[in-house]
Structure formats: structure tokens, C-alpha cells
Hints:
With about 210 residues, the chain is mainly β. Helix content is about 10%, strand content about 30%. The protein has two helices and 14 strands, in the order ββαβββββββββαβββ. The protein has a six-stranded mixed β-sheet with strand order 8-7-6-11-10-9. It is globular.
Amino acid sequence: MAKEPYIQGQSPSPGIREYFFYVDHHGMLFQDDSKMKHFTAAMKEKKLLYNFFKRLRFNDTGRYDTEFKYISLCGRERNFVRCLDRPIVFNSVQKMSLGKDKPEEWVLQHNHAGELLVQKFDPSGICMVSETGRVYHPGPRLCGEIGLISDRLSILWTQEKRFIFRDGEEAPPTSFIWEEEEFKLENKLLELMTDEERGLGMSEEN
């Protein structure tokens, strides 16, 4: 639970309600004050998740922005969000059509909303931080243009030997294998990351 005190549903001004949420490194959404943050306590209704994450952006309200760096606005409802890493977490890669009469293409689904929340998959945009082992991919603009690849997916890709380390395994991977094609990794996401995300001065968060 966050250190800064709050009450779920508090009303700082007439007609305004404030709620507080937490996104774990699997991309699951919880009420921040939930004592047990595991699958059974996570929010699972896909339409709700779609509406919540489509509205997610940086918290520029001046309220709770030290811990709750993101906010999802719904009418006069403020939903403050904190997370272990990044709030956008890609948990599945699928091939699907993004519109009527459009050909199927590879997409990353995020935050357990299935086909409702997707990002076009760009193998060359993958970025692994060697200091932490975490893997990232370009994400929605309003959330900083970065999403975290879930542990399950990144471990699967490692087991499938998709990462190529031509500079040695102590350095970031240089390329990524997808559909039998080798994509050179540009690692442009490093420029958008915080020092903590790059493994500099990283601290544990409960």
C-alpha cells in the first residue's frame, strides 16, 4: 500500500471522487489498499480494463504524484495509479486483424484485456536492460511510449533463444529472432527510461 495517506472514494471537492490502484509486474490491476494482491483479487472484466488503460496517462494533477505517477480519468472520477515498473505490461503476443478487411499481423496484448488492448509488435523495438534483465517494447504515447514485457513472455523468448548476444551476455542483446528473421535491436527506449529502469540506483518497492 502507498505511504501517502488516502481514503478510497474520497471527495476533495464537490462532485470529485478519487480512487487508488496498483499495477503489478504481470500487468494485473488491483485496488491499491487490497491486502492480497494475487490473481483472485485482480480486476478481470475486459471492458473495464480497456476503458481504464485507454485513459491512462501521467499524473499532472499535483496530487499524490510522488507515488502515483499515473492517472486514469473517467468523468469526474480520478483513478490514481502506481506500479512496480511501468503500468503498461505486455502479457501476450498474438496474430490478429486490427480492422475489417485488414490482414492479420502480430500484436502485443497488454494488461489482460485480450484483443481490446493491443500494440503493433515491432521486434526491432525490443529493449533488454542487462542490469535488471527486464525487457521493454514501445508502448502508448500518453504513458511515456514504453511498456514492460511480462516476465512470463520474456522468459519464454529466452527459452526459445530469440535474443542474440553478439557483444556477450553481459551487454544488451544485439538482435532478436522472429519468424526466422533476425531483427537488429535499436535500443532507442533506453533514452526514454529513468535511471532506475536502466539499473542505476535501483530500489525495491513493496
